[in-house]
Amino acid sequence: MTSKELIEHYADLKIEIGQLEHEIADLCGKGWRMETDTVVASPAHEPYQSRPIPISGFVQSPKTAKACKRLIQIYDEKLRNLYFWQNKAEEVFDRIPEGKARAILRYRYIDGLEWQDIAAKIGGNATEDSVKKYAQRILKKF
To answer: What integer is the mean pLDDT of 6-30?
Structure first.
């Protein structure tokens, strides 16, 4: 992927990362049920008489746990790949020497703002067209 493509696809990376993180969180919460059991134990002090002690908690069936674990491993691998490309994109942003250029590109490709909104944020005599042309000149360098 070229530097220009990394910058242009940064927002897509963020969306996909968020989606996968949400999927992992959902998977971790599915398939649980309440179970209750008893164990036989005696107190740590006298009288040392065995008695049943109830225990309860949430468990997943082994098949469900195995399937969830496999899906989470797949999603984790995808996330590692996406984080790799996100880091590469950040390195590209770090190579841009001008703060104004970085700000414009971040507003457009990370925050997803329209050109007119970027011009308003930059202020001064910036117009929609001037900001757009400036960003295009910066991207041509990559």
So the answer is: 90
